[in-house]
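To illustrate the input format used throughout this study, we show a single complete record. The first block contains the structure-token representation of the backbone; no residue identities are included at this stage. The design step must infer an amino acid for every position from geometry alone.
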């Protein structure tokens, strides 16, 4: 399944949640989708827990 199809399905899910459940349901579906996306990236090995908790080095900071 390509990224366009996944985006279409996510947009449809958010649209249905917003239409039938209101704005609160829309936000809930969007937040749970974001959590699922991050969990999927962890399971694929694209992210590591240290990426969120590790501070940046001084040489990485922009001035």
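Output of the design step:
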């Amino acid at each position: 399944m390509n990224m366009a199809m996944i985006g279409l399905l996510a947009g449809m899910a958010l649209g249905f949640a917003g239409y039938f459940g209101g704005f609160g349901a829309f936000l809930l579906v969007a937040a749970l989708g974001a959590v699922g996306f991050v969990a999927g990236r962890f399971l694929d090995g694209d992210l590591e827990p240290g990426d969120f908790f590790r501070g940046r080095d001084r040489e990485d900071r922009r001035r």
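Structural context for interpreting the output: The radius of gyration is 16 Å. The mean pLDDT is 80.
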